[in-house]
Write a structure and sequence with these properties.
This protein is an all-alpha fold. It has 18 helices and no strands. It folds into 2 domains: about 30-245, no CATH class; about 255-460, no CATH class. Helix 2 runs antiparallel to helix 12 (about 280-320) and helix 11 (about 245-280) packs parallel to helix 16. The longest helix has about 35 residues, at about 280-320.
Length: about 475
């Protein structure tokens, strides 16, 4: 595309994509939800297959180097900006629903400025602190060199990582959840093929896994940029217009920063949980690790409903369709409740067979079944947290979900971990912190939503 076209062509005012603001609500939600879910599952497969290839051909030290500590560091650095991008998604969804084309376009170009600058910051800062972070986290000496190599190579692809995730969020904000799924599928396939080629044929060690990841992420970033450059919708991307628009940036930060800090708080509380789990020995650690792989499927479903509802509410709020928002919230509550009960029943009775996919040790399987049967029946207690949090973010209210979640999840969880296991020793009393905090947080959300709906009995469309 020529520079003159990039400078002079204006985005079309509106694409006419009104599927989210019209039609049967449950059908529209599911139509948007399933590509999101498939994308989450693909992401889980991406990580699992990647680790399996490295562990199979390079050994347990290499497997430790591409996960564990390095994964935690990457989640802290990159995860913060990905969570921040929720402010971009909500802002675009609201403006798009209100048919404010100019504001949509400014948000898109501000979003890409965040992706590029944030990616460069993560890459430079991460490469500098990587050796110190690995030492601070007591990385074993036999794993340290490979961990440092893997971490520094992967960090070089931070710009591509953020460009894809933010670009995919822009597409989802306007109701297009299919193309991000196609791009992610392509990325997963490329990553697997390159992993095998680099490791087996070129004998490049853990650097091969990192390089394969960078190449795959770069391809997906290119595809999402290409789709935005070629579209005639108001989300059209013009390379020379990428810059920070002050008012839009402020709005994105106001909405996105609470989600970013909330992500950090969740991570922190889970680190405390893991430290307690480690004290119960190898069998418990192995069982907990296997359970986490199974547990991730429920969270993929739950978060997909939450993101879908955030976009759905954002567009309908922008379009002034308040009754449609209320119906969509009730519909999502019902669908996620049904999904959580179904998953709980299946895992309760058949979870032991699934555990055998990860480990055959009878002691590990026994402990894993104990964990499953204790925790999966409590999934239902988290439903209100996901649905009401997604609803409030779609309305642009991100402070309330942050405060409620901060008090209810990491706050009470760490308080329980400080006193509970000392007063009532035992593994179950450690993991009881999950259903305890889910239940309390759900109750807090219900109380707040009753207050919020009475106070805001007549919501008005978004204004900048």
């Amino acid at each position: 595309m020529s520079d003159s076209l990039l400078e002079n062509e204006q985005p079309s005012s509106y694409s006419g994509n009104t599927g989210i603001t019209q039609g049967v609500i449950w059908k529209q939600l599911l139509f948007f939800f399933f590509p999101m879910l498939l994308g989450s599952i693909l992401q889980l497969m991406y990580n699992t297959i990647d680790a399996a290839i490295v562990g199979k051909f390079l050994g347990k030290e290499a497997l430790s180097a591409v996960g564990g500590t390095t994964g935690t560091i990457l989640n802290l650095l990159v995860g913060f900006f990905i969570a921040l991008s929720s402010g971009i998604t909500v802002t675009i969804a609201q403006f798009y629903g209100a048919r404010k084309s100019e504001e949509v376009s400014k948000t898109v170009h501000t979003a890409f400025a965040i992706a590029v600058s944030g990616g460069l910051f993560v890459a430079v800062f991460g490469i500098i602190i990587a050796p110190h972070a690995l030492v601070w986290m007591d990385t074993p000496p036999e794993v340290y060199p490979m961990s440092l190599t893997y971490l520094r190579v992967v960090l070089c692809g931070s710009v591509s990582n953020l460009v894809y995730n933010i670009g995919a969020g822009i597409l989802r904000a306007v109701g297009d959840s299919r193309r991000p799924l196609y791009f992610l599928s392509t990325s997963v396939l490329i990553n697997v093929v390159l992993d095998l080629f680099f490791i087996i044929n070129l004998n490049m060690g853990v650097a091969s896994a990192a390089l394969a990841t960078i190449i795959a992420q770069t391809v997906s970033a290119f595809l999402v940029c290409l789709s935005l450059v070629r579209t005639q919708d108001s989300i059209k991307l013009y390379i020379k217009k990428i810059r920070f628009y002050k008012q839009i940036l402020r709005r994105i930060l106001v909405i996105g920063m609470p989600a970013a800090f909330q992500n950090l708080m969740y991570t922190t509380s889970n680190i405390f949980i893991q430290s307690f789990v480690n004290s119960f020995g190898t069998n418990t650690i192995a069982a907990w690790t296997s359970y986490a792989k199974i547990d991730a499927f429920f969270w993929a479903i739950s978060s997909s409903f939450g993101i879908s509802l955030t976009t759905f509410v954002g567009q309908n709020y922008g379009a002034g369709k308040i009754d449609r928002i209320k119906k969509s919230v009730l519909t999502c509550l019902g669908m996620l409740s049904l999904a959580s009960v179904t998953i709980s029943v299946v895992l309760y009775f058949f979870g032991g067979y699934v555990l055998k996919l990860f480990n055959d040790d009878p002691a590990v399987i026994e402990k894993g079944v104990e964990i499953i049967r204790f925790l999966v029946p409590t999934y239902i207690t988290f439903v209100c947290v996901e649905i009401f949090s997604g609803t409030l973010r779609g309305l642009g209210n991100t402070v309330a979900p942050l405060i409620i979640t901060a008090l209810g999840v990491p706050g009470i969880r760490m308080l329980w971990l400080f006193f509970g296991p000392q007063l009532f020793p035992g593994f179950r009393n450690v993991i009881f912190s999950y259903p305890l905090t889910w239940s309390i947080t759900s109750l807090m959300f219900i109380i707040y939503m009753i207050y919020f709906t009475r106070k805001k009995s007549k919501l008005s469309p978004v204004t900048l």
